[in-house]
Write a structure and sequence with these properties.
The protein has 482 residues and is mostly helical. The chain has 20 helices and six strands.
Length: 482
Amino acid sequence: MAIAKTDASGGSGLLPEVLHFTSSLALDRQLLREDLVGSLAHLTMLARVGILPKDKAGAIHAGLVRLYAAQAKGELQLPDEEDVHMAVEALLTRELGETAGLLHSARSRNDQVALDLRLHVREACAQVLDGLAALVEKLVARAKGPEGDIVLPSYTHRQRAQPITLSYWLSAYAAMFARDAEAFGFVLQQADALPLGVGAIAGSSLPIDREVTRGLLQFSRVTLNGLDTVGDRDFALDYVYAAARLALHASRFAADLVDFASAEFGFVKLAGDIACGSSMMPQKRNPDVFELVRGKSGRAVGSLVELLVTLKGLPGGYNRDLQEDRQVLLETLPRTLGVLSILGVGLDGVTFDRARCQAAIDADATQATDVAEALVKKGVAFRTAYGLVGTLVRRLQEAKVPLAQVTLAQAQEVDPRFDAEVLEAARPQGSVARKQSVGSTGPASVKHQLQVLQTRAAEIRTQAAGVPRIDQLFQSLKEASL
């Protein structure tokens, strides 16, 4: 039986085909904890302001607590209804009869689902922040380890660019993931407004107190306008966008490692317990873990586009199209946590080959910019120095001589301003050490970067710890006075 129907809406029944097509229960049963906690808070408010008699409020409260305990044990079977809200009400009605209907006073499923989704997004952000903090910490620890001083080429346009240290490369990705934490922090701000109490669209004539509910659920504010509130999924867009952006950063990290693990690069070796094989080619040692991280970024971007398209063109207020936000939102957290976890596991299974990385530096001209800047220090205009070094590199390439092996005679055939001091900059060993600018691969700069990132990881953990969790809210509401 569909509870949310009257004679005016065609009677109490729905065709099975209609119920099957319109029901969101298969998905939003995942919001059961959020729905029960929201109902406990709403019930407490209704009792405190005198809308519900204390005895009946107490009976409903006990029923909701029993339902929460049953779901925690995995013992709660929800009846076939349109959604989780009506399923909970149906269960309460079986136990309490007409008394259960008092709970929906001054409440609509429109503001109820808006609350459930905000509670879900808020808790999801806390879990993602914990995962981001752990990954940033792992990257920083690896950068500070014995491999940190390995020198390897950096890349622009996927061509060798300038020498960097492995600690600098790791720091770059740690900075990306720390920035993702800022995005999820913004989501927390956007979701931190209580929607419950605006009703279906225009509020209620009953003397409710939204501030009571806000305090019970630990939101910082209430939403401003009911018509806006019931159709607002901006916080959901922000959440799915933040997850998509994180996935893009994870994809870039994975793409580097996929390349580095190839024979053409040979910079990393994959441990046997993270490498996958081929069903036909016995020699293969494949980086499937990182390829799948890269692949899942497409799913994350697709979720964002799906939600944007769902919201596009909707008129004001609530529309049932919004039910289609459920799958997008509910699949975002497990996918994101899975990516964060496997990146940490995968990183533990990667070893960098110091000799292969150094060989890539020695065999090319990645220190060419250092040579140009050495000429600048001699008073040569940079653009002139840039051209002179370009000519020198071209001649060396034609002679199949790496820049590191250039002789003074070869250099002065191009221009006499190349001297022994300038050519010292062609030796790759000193390239990293010569970098002095803030944000560079120079040792002092990288040390500072890692300190900042270590501090940021601790801040991210603190931020996550400060987010109210569903189970914590339940415990406080279970004991709250009516």
